[in-house]
Amino acid sequence: MTALVEVNNLSKAFGGVHAVEGVSFSVDAGQVYSVIGPNGAGKTTLFNLITGLYTPTSGEVKLNGESIAKLEPNQLAERGMCRTFQQMQICMNMTAIENVMLGRHLTLKSNLLTTLFRLPALTRGEKAAREKSAELMEFVGCGEYVNTEASAMSYGALKRLEIARALAAEPNVVLLDEPAAGLNAVETAALEDLIRKIAEQGITVMLVEHDMKLVMGISDRLLVLNYGRVLAEGTPEQIRANPDVIAAYLGG
Amino acid sequence: MMARFSRFRLRGLVFLAVVAFALPLFLSNPFHYGLATQIALIAGAVVGLNLLVGFAGQISLGHAGFFGLGAYFSAIMTSTYGWSAIPALVVGAVVVAIIAWVVGRPILRLKGHYLSMATLAVGFIIAIILNNERETTGGPDGMPVPPFDVFGWELSPFSQYSLFGMDIGGDLAWYLFAVVVLLVAVWLAQNLIDSPIGRALRSVHGSEVAASVVGVNTAKYKSLVFVISAVYASVMGGLYGHFQGFITPSVASFDFSILLITMVVLGGMGSTIGVIIGAVVLELLPQLLADFQEMEMVLFGLILMLTMIFMPKGLLPTAANFVKKRRSKSAGGDA
Amino acid sequence: MFSEFLQYLFTGITIGATYALIALGFTLIYNASHVINFAQGEFLMIGGMATVSLTAMGVPMLLAVVLAVVLAGLLGIALQRLAIAPAKNADVVTLIIITIGASIFIRGLAQLVWGKEYHVMPNFSSDEPIEIFGAVLNSQSLWVLGVGAVLVAALVYFFTRTLTGKAILATSMNKDAARLVGIRTQVVLMLAFMVSALLGSIAGIVVAPITFTSYDIGIILGLKGFVAAAIGGLGSGMGAVVGGLALGVVEAMAAGYLSSDYKDAVAFSMILVVLFFMPRGLFGAKVVERV
C-alpha cells in the first residue's frame, strides 16, 4: 500500500543553517503521525516543506505517490492536503463563520455571473456552505462564535476555528502545527478528543507538538527530530524506550 | 436567521437609495445637480477601487489611468468614429479589462511599496500617452465629448425630458441616471463581497497564506479584483466624459489617482457606503474651501494629514466605533 | 555625432545627480522609518524658492543659501514630529496619504508666500558655457556634480565614522534593539528627516539655475527621485546614487534620440522593467517571509 505522505531524503538549508537534513519517513492513510523534537529542531520547517510553502534544497515529498515539487499550496489543497499554523493565520477582517466558509472554497462552484447577479445557484451554495461551516464549528467546539468577528475571539477559540477551516476543505490529510500551544490542561484534553474524532472520520492527521502527554496519548507513530535530522521513528512505546531520545529530549 | 442576514446585507444600499432619491428635494440649480452627478459617477469608480484596496488589501496609486482610458475611449469612439455610447462603453470596458489583466499579472506579484510604485508608474504612463497623442486625444487641451446616448436617444444635461408626465430638466435626468448607475454598481459590489469569490478576495487581505492552504489561487484572485476595479473605473470614466461634454488628460492624472485612493481610505476601507461618503466629502471640500481661495491647498493638505492621523480607520468605521462605545457606556456603565 | 552623444550624457549626468540626491533623501527616511516620503520633492522646491526670494530681498547669496537650507531642515523635523510620529503604526496606504497631504500642504504654503510664477536663479559662477568636444556644458552642471559628490562623501563619512550616523543605521535595522542599547530612536527619526531635507534643499538650490524654480516643481522631481531610489533598491545608499545617475542618463538619451515628449515616461517605464525583473532593485536586500 503506497503511503499517503512520503518524505525522501528531504533537506532545506537557509544560507549556512541546515534546518532540515536528510529526513525520510512515510505516513499511511488513517494514521495519527506526530513530529516531535526540541525547539529549533526543524519541525515547522518540515511542515512548511511538506505543505509546499518552502522549496527543498534537495530530496522530495510525495503526496499519494505524486511529487509535490512543482505544486503551489493551493494545488496541494486541491489534492486533499490542509494545515493549520503555529502562528495562527486567521483572516481578522472576516467573521468566524466566514473564515470557515473560506475553507469551503474548493467545494463551492461559482463564477462571476452567478456571483454578480446573485443567481439562485449561488445562494443555494452559500446556504449549504454556511450550514456545513456552522456544523464544523460545533464539531471543533467553538459553535457559539458563529457570527462573531474573528478579531473579537479568544486565542483558544481561534485555534479551534483554524482547525474547523482546515476540515471544511474536506482534506484527506490535515497537518496541525502546534495546536496545543498556549492551551491549558482542560483545553488540551478537549483538543485530544477533537483529534481523535477527526482521526475516527478516516482523516490522516500529522501533528507537530511539544506537549508529550498529548502526543503519546493519540499518536500511532512518532518522528523525533533533532538539529534537523531524524533521531528516531516508531510507535510511542518504542520512542519512550529509545535511549537516544531520552538523552536528547524526553525529561518527563 | 437567514432572512435577517440578507436584510442586513442590503441595508446600506437601501439607505443610499433613499438619500440619493430624496436629494433633489433639496437641490435647486443646475450647478448643484452637476456637482451631485459628478460625485455619483466618481463614487462609482471609488466603489470599484475599494474592492481592490479595502477588501483585497492591495494598493493602486494609478487608478485614474483606467478612469481616463475609459473616458477617452468612449469619447474617441463616439466622436471620431460615430459609435453609439453604450457599445463604446462596453468595448472600452473590455479593452481596459484586457490591459488591466496584462499589466496586473506581473505587478500584483509585488507587495507594499513596490506595488504602489508599479501602479503609480502605470497610471503615469497612461496619462503621458493621453497627453502626448494630440491627434487622437486632443493633447493637453482636451477634447469635446458627445452627449450620452442610448442608441440614438440622447441624454444631455441641457435638454428637457418628460418623465411620468412631468417635465424634468436634463440635469435632473442625468442625476437620476447617475444615481441608478451608482446603485447598480454598489449592488454588484455587495454581491461580489458576500460570496465565495468575495471571501477569497478578502482572504488575500486577511492572510494570503491561510487562503492558499485552503485552495485559493491568490494570484488569480488578485488579478480578478484588479480587472474588476479597472472596469468599474473605465465605465464611470466613460459616463463622466459624456456628462461633462469635455475631457482633458487630468482625468487620468496622478492627482486624481491620489484623490480616488484618499476617498477610499477616508471613507473607510472595506466599507462600500463609507467610501461613497469619502467621495462626497472630498468632492465637496474644494467647494467649501473655494471661499478661502489661496488657502485652499494649504487647508486641503492639512485636512488630509489630520484625518489620516486621527481617524486612520476612516470616517465611517470611526464614527461607527464611537457610537458603539457610547452605547455600551450608557448600557453597562464604566468598564 | 559624438558631440551630440556627449551633450546628452552631460545633461543626463547633471539631472541624474539631482535625482541621486533626492533618492538618497528617500532612502535615508525609508531606512530609518520604513516610510516613503512623498513630500521629499518639496524640500528641493523650498531650497530653490527660499534662496531666490531671499536674494531678491537683498540677502547675500551665501547667507540666503544657508537660511534656505536651515528652513528646509526645520521643515523636515516638523514633518516627522507633527505628521509621521503621531500616525504611529498606521498601514502603508495611510502613511503614503499623510506624506502626500504634507506635500500638498507645503506646496500650498509655498504658493501663498511666493505665488505661482516661475523664478530664475542666476548661475553660481559664470554664464559662459564650457565647450568640450563640441558639446556644450553649462557651468552650473559642474556645480551640481561637485556639490553632489561632496554631499555623498559627507554622508558616507557620517554613516561610517560618526556615532550619530551609526545610530541611525542601527535604528533602521532593528528599532527595538537600538532602543535597548540606549539609542534614542525618536531623535534618530527626526535627524533622518532633517538630513534628508537638507540634502533635498541643497540639491534644489544647486539645480535651480538650470531648471527654473516654482512652487510645484517638487512633485515630478520627487517622483522621479523615488523611482531612482527604487531602481537602485529601496534602502540602499549606493543604489540611490547609481539609480539616480542611471535614470538621468537614460532619460536624457531617450529624450535626445527618441522623443522628448515621452521623456517623463522613461522613468516610469524603467521602474516597471526593474520591478518586473529585479523587484529588489539593483542593490536591494532580499527579504524572507517567516510563517
Can I get a quick summary?
By secondary structure, chain A is of the alpha/beta class.
| CATH H-level superfamily title of the largest domain in chain A | P-loop containing nucleotide triphosphate hydrolases
How many separate helices of chain C? 11
Using the alpha-carbon principal axes, give the shape of chain C. globular
Biggest chain-to-chain interface with counts: B-C, 44 and 43 residues
> What kind of sheet is the major sheet of chain A?
6 strands, mixed
Class from secondary-structure proportions of chain A: alpha/beta
- Sheet having the most strands of chain C: 2 strands, antiparallel
Keywords:
heterotrimer, B: mainly alpha, ABC transporter involved in vitamin B12 uptake, BtuC, 73% helix, disordered N terminus, C: 291 residues
How does this structure look, described?
The complex is a heterotrimer of chains A (252), B (335) and C (291). Chain A is an alpha/beta fold and 252 residues long. Chain A folds into two domains: 1-80 and 204-252, Rossmann fold (3-Layer(aba) Sandwich); 81-170, Rossmann fold (3-Layer(aba) Sandwich). Chain A contains ten helices and ten strands. Chain A has a six-stranded mixed beta sheet with strand order 6-7-8-3-9-10, with helices on both faces. A four-stranded antiparallel beta sheet of chain A has the order 2-1-4-5, with helices on one face. In chain A, helix 5 (120-140) crosses helix 6. Chain A starts with a strand and ends with a helix. Chain B contains 15 helices and six strands. By secondary structure, chain B is mainly alpha-helical. With 291 residues, chain C is an all-alpha fold. Chain C has one domain (2-277): Orthogonal Bundle (ABC transporter involved in vitamin B12 uptake, BtuC). Chain C has helices at 2-33, 40-56, 61-84, 92-114, 139-161, 163-173, 175-180, 185-211, 218-232, 237-258, 263-277; strands at residues 130-132, 135-137. Chain C has a two-stranded antiparallel ribbon. In chain C, strand 1 and strand 2 form a beta hairpin. In chain C, helix 5 packs antiparallel against helix 8 and helix 9 packs across helix 10. The B-C interface holds B 53, 59, 61, 106-107, 109-110, 112-114, 116-118, 120-122, 124-125, 128-129, 132, 209, 254, 258, 261-262, 265, 269, 294-305, 308-310, 312 and C 36, 83, 86-87, 90-94, 96-98, 100-109, 111-112, 219, 223, 226-227, 230, 234, 261-262, 264-265, 267-269, 271-272, 275-276, 279, 291.
